[in-house]
Amino acid sequence: MLLVPRQLQRVGMTGNVPYYGGRLTPAQAYAASHPAPPPPRAPAGARSTTLDALEHLRAAGVITESEYAQALKRINN
Questions:
Q1: Is the pLDDT of residue 61 over 60?
Q2: Where are the domains of the chain?
Q3: CA of 71: how far to CAs of 24, 50, 55, 62, in Å?
Q4: From 66's CA, which of 24, 36, 46, 56 has a CA 20 to 30 Å away?
Q5: Where is pLDDT greater, at 59 or 17?
Q6: Residue 66 burial (CB < 10 Å; 0-12/13-18/19+)?
Q7: Confidence band (pLDDT; 50, 70, 90) for 37?
Q8: What does the alpha-carbon distance between residue 52 and residue 42 come to, in Å, rounded to a whole number?
């Protein structure tokens, strides 16, 4: 049983959970001090391979000119 002053208990929370004045839990403190690494970037050759694949799809008639332009815009951003 956890004894907590009545002023620190929050009524709106599920169950009888004490409120500790905005302090972080150990898991939250660890997550804040150890940010996730950025996602890895694609290798330099991957972009040219993607462009070659898009050119092939456009030449084969699988995608339209407008779809090609949209995909090209997404790759360049």
A1: yes
A2: 44-76
A3: 43, 10, 11, 13
A4: 46
A5: 59
A6: exposed
A7: confident
A8: 16
